[in-house]
Specification:
The protein is of the alpha+beta class. Helix content is 33%, strand content 17%. The chain contains 13 helices and 18 strands. The strands form 6 sheets. Strands 6-5-4-1-7 form a 5-stranded mixed beta sheet, with helices on both faces. A 3-stranded antiparallel beta sheet has the order 8-11-12. Strands 9-10-13 form a 3-stranded antiparallel beta sheet. Helix 8 (205-228) packs antiparallel against helix 9 and helix 10 (311-329) packs antiparallel against helix 11. The longest helix is centred in the middle third of the chain and has 24 residues, at 205-228. Bound molecules: manganese (II) ion. The site of manganese (II) ion has 5 residues, from loops. Residues 298, 374, 395, 397, 420 line the site of manganese (II) ion (MN).
Length: 459
């Protein structure tokens, strides 16, 4: 994969990648999670594996976009959680009983691409095995071409089930094949899924630092959009403004494709096209958040294109806001994960009945058809938990979506409103990490009366 530079035979193709010496690796940012925390996570998994256990973790495959252009790479979240290693074509082996890498007996090893001047010139910086040992605090690292050989030398370990990446290409495919051949006559003991889910659900102070940054960046993006939006703009203008702010906050990516739905599009839960022109009187539902050093926020605001809610938009908005408040109140340690959903649903039900939009309890799911909460972290829909505990971060995101043709007064049609914040569970009161984005009708209208970065012409 040579990225955007076309490979012209004999002219621009690398002739040899044979230099094996590891090149220096620059560290540009100093605020990532320290190596010691990754080591502690691996130690915990190794303790669960037992003296004879063995587990292999692969990162994600590189995905092709078109011809010789790939999608920007993002590693597997469990793999990132255990290593902090962000490059493709990598695998982690944990075996507390020990195995041999480069003549040394170790209990863990990372397999990576090699780094040398030629590959850096063509492919960018790579950490390489030697830098991986010093920077990631891993016991041993080796070139990924040695993965299968080293694995085949491990004889008696009790294998734990591993998630095999789907459709890998190139180097990762070779590693996966090596693993499959090695493991085919071994009976796997069950997975580590539950352990990793439990570990990932409760965030460390270092993880909370990154999640807070992502949530604050996301909130600021929403503020800038509210200040900038006006009828005549396109949904993609709004997407560009919000993602610009994420970028200025150092976010490497969005946590998920930004949803900017105006008018009828506001009633489509995962509307990602963002191509419609916004008109006066539209409601806009924007679900967009940044990902910072692997950790994603998840924030939604709904606001009127013209800066003032119509009476109908405002009535629905107040119901959803009350439901969100009720849900946030339930984000307390010891509560069931379902508690915020139950509280929010009850408020939505009462509100829609009061407005005459529904008559019976059974009609609620016509207008509110999704859950109220999920945890966030390395995945925007992070690991599942049953009971809320301190340092869990979950969303509270009730919504009401009324499509044209719905069996209610048509003055309500084409209103889709969702309000979503990222809530930190503590020993006491819940903390709203995305509170920087205006949430009440008055705050939103006040913010929208200002001008924003999106009002500077670039055409
Ligand atoms: Mn969400």
């Amino acid at each position: 994969m040579l990225g955007r530079l076309r490979c012209i035979p004999f002219l621009l193709c690398p002739l040899s990648l044979a230099h094996a010496q590891t090149a220096e690796y620059p560290v540009f940012e100093k605020d990532k999670i320290p190596a010691a925390e990754y080591k502690a996570r691996r130690d915990k998994v190794k303790a669960a594996l037992g003296a004879n256990g063995l587990a292999v973790f692969f990162t994600n495959p590189v995905r092709n976009r078109n011809n010789d252009v790939d999608y920007r790479f993002r590693g597997d979240s469990n793999f990132l959680y255990l290593t902090g290693f962000e490059e493709p074509d990598a695998a982690l082996v944990l075996a507390p009983g020990g195995f041999t890498v480069n003549g040394k007996k170790v209990t863990e090893a990372l397999f990576t691409n090699v780094s040398d001047p030629m590959s850096i010139t063509w492919l960018g910086y790579r950490m390489g095995p030697e830098n991986a040992v010093s920077l990631l605090g891993i016991e041993a690292a080796a070139p990924n071409k040695d993965f299968a050989n080293i694995l085949f030398d491990i004889k008696d370990a009790q294998l734990y089930r591993t998630r095999i990446p789907e459709g890998p290409t190139d180097t990762l495919a070779t590693m996966v094949t090596g693993y499959t051949n090695w493991s085919k006559d071994k009976e796997a003991k069950g997975g580590l899924g539950t352990l990793l889910e439990e570990m990932r659900a409760v965030k460390s102070p270092e993880e909370l630092r990154l999640i807070k940054h992502a949530a604050e960046a996301s909130a600021r993006g929403h503020v800038e959009v509210m200040k900038s939006v006006q009828p005549g703009m396109w949904e993609y203008d709004i997407q560009a403004i919000v993602e610009y702010v994420f970028g200025r906050w150092g976010c490497e990516s969005v946590g998920y494709p930004s949803i900017v739905g105006s008018a009828a599009n506001s009633t489509i839960l995962h509307y990602e096209e963002d191509r419609r022109q916004i008109e006066k009187g539209d409601i806009i539902c924007m679900d967009a958040a940044g990902e910072y050093h692997g950790y994603s926020a998840d924030v939604t605001r709904s606001f009127p294109a013209s800066g003032k809610f119509s009476p109908e938009q405002k009535a629905i908005y107040e119901v959803v806001l009350a439901a969100q408040d009720a849900g946030i109140k339930e984000c307390r340690k010891g509560n069931s994960f379902r508690a915020p959903h139950e509280a929010a649903s009850k408020t939505l039900l009462e509100g829609l009945k009061r407005l005459g939009i529904i008559q019976n309890d059974s009609e609620l799911n016509r207008y509110f058809m999704h859950g109220t909460s999920h945890t966030i972290g390395l995945d925007v829909h992070d690991t599942r938990i049953r009971t809320l505990a301190p340092n869990v971060v979950l969303t509270v995101e009730p919504g009401i979506y009324i499509k044209a043709g719905s069996p209610c007064d048509k003055k309500w049609w084409n209103i889709g409103i969702r309000i979503e914040d990222d809530i930190l569970v503590t020993d006491g009161d819940p903390i709203n990490l995305s509170a920087g984005a205006p949430r009440t009708v008055a705050e939103i209208e006040r913010t929208m009366a200002k001008r924003g970065i999106g009002n500077i012409s670039v055409k």
